[in-house]
Amino acid sequence: MKRGFLNSSKVKKKPLYEAHTSTESAQEAIQDQEKPGPTLNVIKLPFGKVENRGVPNDYKVSGLTPTEWSHNARVDYDPNQAVMTTIPPRNFNMPPNPDGHSTWIVRGVTKAKVLNRPGYPKVVPKPSGPPAYEVRSTPDMGMGVFATRDIAAGELILAERPLLVAPRDIGMMVDPSKLMLREKYSPDEFKQITMMECEKLLEFVVHRYMEPEHREAFLALANSHQEDGSGPLLGIIRTNGYGIEGLFDGPKVNEWESNTYGAIVKVGSRINHSCRPNINHKFDLDAFCLSFFAERDIPSGKQLSYSYCYMGQSAADRQAELAPYGFSCTCPSCVNATPESDKLRTEHEQRISTAEASVARGAANKATFASLIDLKKQLVEEGLDASDAYPKLLKAISALCGKLGMTAEESKYLKDMKNYVL
């Protein structure tokens, strides 16, 4: 029951594995042409569950693309070489890094890009004050993460290095000769072949090289893909992966984001869904960690929640996007959805953009201020103060207060806005 691949550092998202489109074959052909070298291929897994027809009887699973396992800081790889590594690099003659190490399936050049960053390495940030969370069971959502004290908006709740970081389309690490099998097998059969090959790669990584305590935590995570042929390890990744913004192969993120990476984390992957989330996250490449922040004030005992779907859509569309995770959302925004709340969700980003433009053009009157405060109230009541656009509204209100000479209010809304901007 975990989140999809993020399209931004905030709430607007894409699934960890995108749905196939009618133009996908053409897109893949373009991608293959754009990627130099024979090992950069795209074997794209579908979003959500697929019909499990099994691997064809005449197919023999071959296992791994030739790779190298490297704990050290080596960066002189062939341009497209696939590597399984430890980050931060691990010197077994020295004590482990106090902030922990992540297992990483990566292109060698991307490993070099991170290790050679001017700001790398940086220590994992530490929350202030006493511990703010605990992991425990929920009545109807499996394990969850709960606040153990009052948490202020904008506060860092936890930061952790991932258990595993892998390509968003992990099929890219499969033997590129498998691309030729598209002509031999049906699309459904080829999906099963791809997932089985990915599973074999993950078996090698998880069971042979992941640290025992990390392996135990990884295997304990939920898997909503137990019956569709994903395999137990790939199913955990497809269920629990956070997209990592800023980590990608090559000079830029391609149009289909197939060259990006996802992370599985010990605590963060236990955070359950709500369409009215109260936490957000960001990935720090220099510390190589995922940090979770309070999106609003969270009282002690409240479950931490994060939206696995795009918030700016109707309740019916949200439920459809969440269906592959194997549950129906019962948050207040879904249970109490109305045509008016659906309209607010689908239109709130445009309404905020219009407000920004109006203030930028010089609108400065009490009527405009009242309308923006009313919009802010509606968003808070609907739980959309966790949306990507909400801090933009706070910024517009602050700017308008400045134009109206409302100095104290200007500072207040500007301060509130900074709590939401990661």
UniProtKB/TrEMBL annotation:
<dbReference type="InterPro" id="IPR001214">
    <property type="entry name" value="SET_dom"/>
</dbReference>
<dbReference type="InterPro" id="IPR053185">
    <property type="entry name" value="SET_domain_protein"/>
</dbReference>
<dbReference type="InterPro" id="IPR046341">
    <property type="entry name" value="SET_dom_sf"/>
</dbReference>
<feature type="domain" description="SET">
    <location>
        <begin position="131"/>
        <end position="309"/>
    </location>
</feature>
<dbReference type="Pfam" id="PF00856">
    <property type="entry name" value="SET"/>
</dbReference>
<feature type="region of interest" description="Disordered">
    <location>
        <begin position="1"/>
        <end position="37"/>
    </location>
</feature>
<feature type="compositionally biased region" description="Polar residues">
    <location>
        <begin position="20"/>
        <end position="30"/>
    </location>
</feature>
<protein>
    <recommendedName>
        <fullName>SET domain-containing protein</fullName>
    </recommendedName>
</protein>
